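Notes from hallway chat w/ T.B., transcribed later so I don't forget. T.B. wanted the structure written out for a chain they're using in a teaching module, and asked if we could keep both sequence and structure tokens in one place. Agreed to drop them here.
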Amino acid sequence: MKHLKRVFPNNNLEYIRNRSGELINVGHRTSAKYYRVYSKGECLRFEFEHKYRKTLNLYDHFLKTKQFHKLEQRISYEFLKQTQHLFSYSQETEKVEWLAQRLRPFQTRNSLADSGTTINIHYIQQCSMKKFQKQDLIWLFQLLAYLKLLDGYKTANLRSKFRQYKFPVREFLYFTNTTTEINQYKLEKTIEFFNSLEQNLVFKFLADKDYRMLVTIPEAYANKVQNRWIAEVWVADEVFNYFEPFLFIDHFKQKKMTIDEFSVLFHIIQKFSVTKLRKDFDIPRFFDSYSSKLNGTRKKNIKNLFLHYIKNLQQEGKIQEQVLFPLHSESNPKRLIKISDLNAERLIEPFAVFEVLQVSFVK
């Protein structure tokens, strides 16, 4: 209720508690849009009454013409649109996870930036990974983004329809980072990546088994042709019509990254790429994941990196403007802090940020 009053101060809100349970009304029963949330037994129910005349006429048309599937789609659409409008900034995320599951895949239709500057991510296993495994996983997502920009490919029907791409390895390297000079070491590492794709070593870190099977690459390698390394990759055609659940601006390709910059950004994306809207972080535990002991200066720099990327996510509209500190302490007397007021010193305790689904509904 506090959330609704803060976000919609001019709405007609009503809270009722009686023997039957709790009830929240948004709007009047006689208004064009009336929404209510109430508890019944152990269930929390969401209901929406839509009386807008133009929409009702459309429903009536679908009924008269027996277009029942279209009627069901439109009713569901209006319900999801209003629910997203009311609860997209809720911090009681456990109560609206069902909404996130239905809407999250569609946010990849809404570009955060120009084509080629974003990276689509799928659910990632929440486990420890070696640096080269993290790099290979990011390269995999960048490879899929790169292939979507290429026009020239051949198709073949194996067990299902596949696309065959051929391209210079250097062009893919320029795509992944236009500011980094391509040296022999970088080139060799990229060639190793292409030659290892067939072994499916990196795919085990994808949490969704169906998606793992979809993006499994049956054939990939790099050969030297007239002094140029050429990559050949076969990818399932279905991948190119798939809506991954997460869309990020690809900060990995914007500059040459230090080890800590890469580690922090990957950790944030790994923590972010889970089904729950609430994303929990524990930076002291992140420090423990390093193989060597970190000094105070490096720890401070890492906390500043976390703060930098969290502010980026908030500016991009990917997370809510407040951070939750679940633990009470003298250093963190306030449990909710605006990201604009946050400083690195406050990140010594576990904290959580809340994902905002970026889905555009047609009015």
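Follow-up for T.B.: The CA atoms of residues 169 and 188 lie 10 Å apart. Might be a good example for the class.
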